[in-house]
């Protein structure tokens, strides 16, 4: 907390204002923030109006990937060492049921209508498609070695998986679950994210130290357009390890968590240049916006906290202690 | 760098399909079959001091098999198939085995052998074969005896000694009591520690040689003898901060911790040991590697398995990125600045273009956990901190790698 004393007081000011205005709908209205704590085997709940941790509940063994149903009622948590996705009530935090996920689930995406979850199974070189209604496995798609990152194109056509040892982005057709394209990227691709218009796909490579920019509008399908590199004076290049990413809904800004560099890079999507590095907690891993994108939240695995970034000013404004080794973060919709 | 990728990538993008179902759509120009040989030379050996160090039958082969499976999965998306030819041979039959492998289409060969045999077999394989050294730590193999077709995945003694030295000096333990064995490999390792002391500014305040008298290593009375002999052997040494053990032959080093006359930590061949990998290592995604290896083999990984896995992965990565199976093209890619490989040690591994040695972090283990990883913070280098370990470009005596 002592990292950002000035900005914090500003934030407190705006939070106080929001409270004073009472129930007016606002971007700063309280949303629950759920953080999976990989080592603590829990999920922490943070209130986005007060930025206080309000609850922590058991979430299975080694919780990592975390997501929420489109209606905000169900919280999905990859309990990696339980080989299941655990489903919790977002109001009561009660454990509801498990979904079959395939072995060692790590990351997943939820389809826009909430009917399906697409999961990467790290140990078995598979992407598993889970039907959330019937709670059954609908398909298993063989992919490269150590599948990790998952993304869904905004039109729902492609499920993207990145495989960390094969070093590819696999483009899985959501209609027939067949791989239609593969693109080689740099070493250890961790995460994938589309722009809101579906024109670009970003893939972060942790060990390669780059973000691959893939154009979805190439003549013969997706094609690699360029790669973004990072450079911070005084930080060894080896520590600049891009992981989690988020793009603003207006497609203007790409935020990239840089792991052990303890920074989030801000990239101008138009020029694909890094314009700023925001200091965060230690080992910054995954990112999520609050609804309306007033804030961007980061999980910081080594300092056991989340950093709250003000998106407009691109400044870190607060950090909130959560559980042991926070990994993923999701925010309940309005 | 850009140019090469632009050539390769459109081709990759167009290679759209999972090969399993659609292999027939690949033109012959794209379909590649790569067979990598793994030759293990078997030597007569005494039982290790510790039962934990007993050598599994599939040592090295298991790592190569996992690497081959990784390559094959990736290759299935690109129309590349990968195979292994694993063999064991006595030293006198090893050359014939290499020639037989080469004539059957092996152009990438991994050797698990001592330094002299690695040199002899790399020569026998010839210039048309890229040979990977997965076991021999000899510095002269990377120096005056270096060979253009021989790349080293195994770290050199100089790298291992430097990895220990950096940690020990980070701890501010500059006064070393060096105990080395009497066999040639032990002396070579002792020499590497002497070099490391000079390089990093430590002082070897006392040196002793532990004679290998060929006595039995594990006996019923061993404990009693050790408890009485080691204190006597180490008494009256100059004031020191740490004991450095150079015992590649595995004769005495495991007996040093707790038994030294002066209570001091032990590093080197016992106590804090430098290794490429060990089974408790979890950071940087290594848990996934451990699980895959254990599922495949039913045992814990050994450093030699990691080395062979890495060698086979180097081949796979080079084939994947170049789309070629030509040994000369693969060698030049591997030694070039575009090559990089993730190896579960937090940063990419690459090769030194002056002697063919792989740059890699060295884990320091107490045999239960990863205690630290070298290079250590604060040891700086104008090119890469990894080059603070081992023989750097200005010091090399290798002439086979034209720069």
UniProtKB/TrEMBL annotation, chain A:
Signal listed as a keyword: yes
Classification via Gene3D superfamilies: YVTN repeat-like/Quinoprotein amine dehydrogenase
Key words, A-Z: Signal
Organism: Roseibium suaedae
The keyword Membrane appears for this protein: no
Short name of one Pfam family: Lactonase
Lineage: superkingdom: Bacteria
Full protein name: PQQ-dependent catabolism-associated beta-propeller protein
Secretion signal, residue range per the UniProt entry: 1-28
TrEMBL record, chain B:
One Pfam family it belongs to: Peripla_BP_6
Source species, domain of life: Bacteria
Signal sequence, start to end: 1-31
Keywords associated with the record: Amino-acid transport, Signal, Transport
Entries under PANTHER family matching the protein: LEUCINE-SPECIFIC-BINDING PROTEIN, PERIPLASMIC BINDING PROTEIN OF ABC TRANSPORTER FOR NATURAL AMINO ACIDS
Family: Belongs to the leucine-binding protein family.
Record-given protein name: Amino acid/amide ABC transporter substrate-binding protein, HAAT family
Organism name: Roseibium suaedae
């Amino acid at each position: 907390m002592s990292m950002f004393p000035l900005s914090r007081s500003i934030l407190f000011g705006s939070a106080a204002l929001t409270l004073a205005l009472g129930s007016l709908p606002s971007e700063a209205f309280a949303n629950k923030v759920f953080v999976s704590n990989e080592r603590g085997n829990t999920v922490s709940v943070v209130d986005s109006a007060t930025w206080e941790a309000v609850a922590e509940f058991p979430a299975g063994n080694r919780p990592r990937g975390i997501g929420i149903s489109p209606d905000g009622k169900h919280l999905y948590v990859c309990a990696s060492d339980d080989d299941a996705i655990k489903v919790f009530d977002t109001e009561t935090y009660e454990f509801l049921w498990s979904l079959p996920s395939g072995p060692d689930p790590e990351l997943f995406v939820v389809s826009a209508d909430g009917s399906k979850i697409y999961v990467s199974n790290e140990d078995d070189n598979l992407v598993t498609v889970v039907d959330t209604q019937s709670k059954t496995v609908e398909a298993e798609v063989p992919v490269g070695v150590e599948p990790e990152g998952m993304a869904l194109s905004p039109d729902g056509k492609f499920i993207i998986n990145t495989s960390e040892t094969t070093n590819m982005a696999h483009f899985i057709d959501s209609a027939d679950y067949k791989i239609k394209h593969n693109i080689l990227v740099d070493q250890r691709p961790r995460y994938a994210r589309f722009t809101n218009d579906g024109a670009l796909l970003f893939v972060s490579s942790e060990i390669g130290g780059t973000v691959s920019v893939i154009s979805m509008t190439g003549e013969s399908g997706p094609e690699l357009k360029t790669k973004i590199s990072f450079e911070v004076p005084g930080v060894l290049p080896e520590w600049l390890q891009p992981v989690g990413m988020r793009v603003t809904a207006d497609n203007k800004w790409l935020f990239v968590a840089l792991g052990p560099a303890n920074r989030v890079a801000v990239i101008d999507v138009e020029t694909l240049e890094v314009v700023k590095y925001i200091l965060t907690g230690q080992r910054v891993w995954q990112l999520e916006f609050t609804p309306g994108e007033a804030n961007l939240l980061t999980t910081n695995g080594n300092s056991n906290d989340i950093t709250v970034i003000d998106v407009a000013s691109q400044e870190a404004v607060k950090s909130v202690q959560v559980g042991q080794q926070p990994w993923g973060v999701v925010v309940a919709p309005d | 760098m850009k140019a090469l990728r632009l050539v390769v990538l459109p081709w990759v993008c167009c290679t759209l399909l999972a090969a399993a179902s659609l292999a027939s759509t690949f033109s012959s120009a794209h379909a590649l079959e790569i067979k990598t040989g793994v030759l293990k030379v078997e030597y007569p050996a005494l039982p290790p001091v510790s039962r934990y160090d007993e050598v599994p039958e599939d040592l090295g082969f298991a790592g190569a098999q996992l690497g081959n499976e990784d390559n094959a999965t990736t290759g299935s998306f690109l129309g590349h198939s990968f195979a292994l030819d694993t063999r064991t041979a006595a030293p006198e039959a090893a050359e014939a085995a290499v020639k037989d492998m080469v004539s059957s289409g092996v152009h990438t060969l991994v050797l698990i052998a001592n330094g002299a045999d690695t040199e002899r077999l790399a020569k026998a394989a010839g210039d048309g074969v890229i040979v990977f050294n997965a076991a021999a730590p000899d510095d002269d193999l990377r120096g005056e005896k270096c060979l253009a077709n021989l790349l080293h995945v195994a770290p050199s003694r100089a790298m291992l000694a430097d990895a220990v030295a950096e940690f020990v000096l980070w701890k501010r333990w500059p006064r070393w009591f060096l105990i080395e064995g009497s066999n040639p490999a032990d002396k070579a390792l002792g020499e590497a520690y002497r070099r490391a002391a000079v390089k990093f500014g430590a002082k070897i305040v006392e040196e002793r040689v532990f004679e290998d008298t060929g006595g039995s290593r594990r006996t019923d009375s061993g404990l009693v003898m050790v408890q009485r002999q080691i204190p006597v052997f180490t008494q009256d040494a100059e004031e020191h901060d740490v004991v450095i053990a150079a015992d590649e032959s595995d004769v005495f080093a495991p007996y040093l911790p707790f038994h030294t006359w002066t209570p001091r930590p032990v590093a080197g061949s016992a106590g804090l040991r430098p290794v490429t990998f060990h089974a408790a290592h979890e950071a940087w995604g290594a848990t996934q590697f451990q699980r895959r290896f254990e599922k495949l083999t039913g045992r814990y990984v050994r450093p030699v398995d990691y080395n062979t896995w890495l060698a086979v992965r180097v081949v796979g990565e080079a084939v994947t990125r170049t789309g070629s199976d030509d040994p000369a093209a693969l060698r030049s890619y591997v030694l070039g600045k575009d090559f990089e490989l993730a190896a579960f040690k937090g940063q990419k591994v690459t090769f030194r273009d002056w002697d063919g040695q792989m740059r890699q972090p060295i884990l320091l283990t107490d045999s239960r956990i990863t205690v630290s990883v070298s290079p250590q913070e604060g040891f700086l280098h104008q090119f890469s901190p990894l080059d603070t370990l081992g023989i750097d470009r200005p010091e090399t005596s290798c002439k086979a790698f034209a720069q």
